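Lecture notes, continued. The same structure-token format from the folding unit now serves as the input rather than the output. Read the line below as a description of shape only.
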């Protein structure tokens, strides 16, 4: 039986205009895909259906952007961070979360997983969905004009799962020794490991940590070395600490 395709992206954004955030529900295993895609990533079923998500979720980990990685076009969403967000329906994604800053960072980390909710925000000519701390409303939220934050509710107790990252065989790296020596303590601090266990050949998958930690590491390197690093390029090229040192060396030239 052939699969009847529809314009899934248009359907998603049309519903955002109506104030609804849709996912794709798998009737076979109960998995919810958000943002919506046709195939169920849990069981492979191709016959999924639209359902509105509740918008309730929790942060399981997060990083704050560095000064150099802040984007002017997102000014109306500040303050914000990048977080692993687990929806009530079970889906876990790395997305923007509004309302996080240095003033509440410690409080949130002390009570992870921390409650957030989905909101619809206005961009240039379209609407999209992000998340926010409960009680916080950025200026860009549809229907909001103040952007003022209020106190967040008590945290939700839930165990945060670790991300599963596919192993790859890293290529040899050509790096500056001084850069590597400066980089290793930063990597160890980001992943909460002993610096003596980190070498140029250490793969980031060895840490078995959520990918959002790598995003935070790259952001901290921008401040440390006074450079700009594309997270897309870093994710593609830096499979080992040595390869990250090589990328940092390139960016400094």
């Amino acid at each position: 039986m052939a699969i009847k395709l529809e314009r899934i992206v248009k359907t998603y954004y049309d519903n955002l205009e109506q104030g609804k955030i849709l996912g794709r529900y798998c009737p076979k295993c109960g998995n919810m895909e958000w943002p919506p895609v046709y195939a169920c990533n849990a069981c492979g079923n191709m016959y999924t259906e639209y359902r509105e998500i509740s918008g309730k979720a929790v942060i399981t980990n997060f990083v704050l952007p560095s000064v150099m990685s802040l984007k002017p076009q997102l000014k109306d969403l500040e303050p914000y961070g990048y977080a692993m967000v687990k929806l009530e329906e079970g889906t876990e994604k790395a997305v923007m979360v509004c309302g996080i800053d240095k003033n509440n960072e410690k409080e949130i980390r002390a009570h992870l997983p921390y409650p957030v909710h989905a909101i619809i925000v206005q961009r240039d000519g379209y609407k999209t969905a992000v998340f926010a701390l409960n009680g916080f409303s950025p200026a860009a939220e549809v229907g909001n004009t103040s952007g003022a934050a209020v106190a967040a509710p008590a945290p939700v107790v839930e165990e945060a799962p670790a991300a599963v990252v596919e192993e790859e065989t890293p290529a040899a790296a050509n790096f500056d020794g001084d850069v590597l020596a400066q980089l290793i303590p930063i990597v160890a601090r980001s992943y909460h490991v002993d610096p003596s266990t980190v070498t140029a050949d250490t793969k980031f998958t060895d840490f078995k940590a959520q990918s959002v930690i790598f995003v935070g590491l790259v952001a901290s390197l921008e401040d440390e070395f006074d450079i700009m690093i594309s997270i897309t390029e870093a994710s593609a090229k830096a499979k080992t600490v040595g390869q990250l040192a090589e990328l940092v060396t390139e960016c400094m030239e």
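Point for the exam: The helical segments are 8-17, 105-110, 177-191, 211-225, 231-237, 241-252.
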